[in-house]
Amino acid sequence: MYPTKPEKASEELAAPAIEATITHDEVFGEITECGPNYRNVGWLGTVALMMKTQIGLGVLSIPASFDVLGLIPGLIILVTIAAITTWSNYMVGVFKLLHPSVYSLDDAGAMMFGRAGRYFFAAAFCLYWILVAGSGMLGISIALNAISTHGTCTAVFVAVAAIIGFSLSSIQTLGRITWLAWIGLASILTAVFTVTIAVGIQDRPASAPEGPWASDYKLVGNPSFTEAIAAVSSLIFSYAGTTAFFAIVSEMRDPKMYTRSLLICQSGVTATYITIGTVIYYFCGSFVASPALGSAGVVVKKVAYGFALPGLLVTTTLVIHVPAKYIFVRALSNSRHLVENTPTHWFSWIGCTAGITITAYIVASAIPVFGGLVSLIGALLGTLMSFQPMGCMWLYDNWHKDGNRSVHWYWMVFFSIFVIISGTFLTVGGTYGSIVGIIDSYRTEGGSAAWSCADNSNSV
């Protein structure tokens, strides 16, 4: 029996109300047209966000790490870290698909270790990204000093970086930040490849002594334990965007495309790191700067930092946005204010981005030593967030699986335990080495005082 005309009319009137709900999400709840669309990142946008999370501040310290370790050990360690973190990043996507309600590492921690796991990883997650945001502001201040030839007090530049980072990070969703990620990625790659080409065609790096000169690069270094472990920590920091990937996959339109985006990201990132690290260190030797953009002289440094500045701004934007979004989601979970543009929604969101920005600004001003801050973050929290939890995640999902335990199962158990143990060793040893390095830098002219006006672009 065909429906009557009044029934058709009632169906048409009801349609808009049904279409108003875009989707139901395990994390965000009912996402409607009345609020921000938290599930609007495509797989290409995911590549951009992933690569910009990875290729940022860490790449600028890779040549200096090679100087400590030597070229051959440096490359071996870099590729090893790339392999382990690629597996860790893959586990993020697998765990998210198996447990859709997981939004951040603390959710995984709660599933594996209970309330203590949630609190521990929540604190580590927020502290990590606040420190990364602080290093991002420090990087921007170095860029502004280099471009302007120390046009004003460095403390002012750090404050400017904080204000811009706060403004851009307050964009509500990662889907709306994707275009910034593409710009930032192109910017930072242009800058580092400009320096890479420049050091290859110049006679000497900027800080090399006068007179006949040849690169003193080392195939194998002879560092002390603290120097070596701090250098390894800097390399880990170059790949330590892992915990942001929980937030990124949570905002994908199709999380099943995550692995494709990840493989493209890690392949591009690793190829870039190997190329830049090898070429710059080969031509500069022990006179490589950290950040590396200062290695090719004043003019090239100005040009490179000019190219890099948008990329550094986008990096700072992302690393403020990620912890702010985490706190925001936790605060408004199971509330309509999470997905609707209410006054409570906006006051809470702006409060979260402002709080993260202010805290990160204090960090950037209090520890104004780029290399030391990068290695400390990589050691203390980068490893902790990229190694141990992912080994535990595999064991959590696979330890009690029914059926015969194959050779592959035993291999994965061994590998997961290896990742946990090696990550713990690197966390403890790297933190010690990085703290010793920061203390030493304050005992030399390379270190500057907190809230200093000194030009931090000339000391690196």
TrEMBL record:
Main location per the UniProt record: membrane
UniProt KW keywords: Membrane, Transmembrane, Transmembrane helix
Domain Amino acid transporter transmembrane, first and last residues per copy: 40-435
InterPro entries, alphabetized: AA_transpt_TM (IPR013057)
Subcellular location: Membrane
Transmembrane segments annotated in the record for this chain: 75-98, 119-143, 149-168, 180-201, 228-249, 261-283, 303-324, 345-367, 373-396, 408-428
GO cellular component, one term: membrane
Membrane topology designation: Multi-pass membrane protein
Gene Ontology terms for molecular function: L-amino acid transmembrane transporter activity
PANTHER family reported for this sequence: AMINO ACID TRANSPORTER (PTHR22950), AMINO ACID TRANSPORTER (EUROFUNG) (PTHR22950:SF683)
Family affiliation: Belongs to the amino acid/polyamine transporter 2 family.
Protein name in the entry: Amino acid transporter transmembrane domain-containing protein
Organism this protein belongs to: Xylaria multiplex
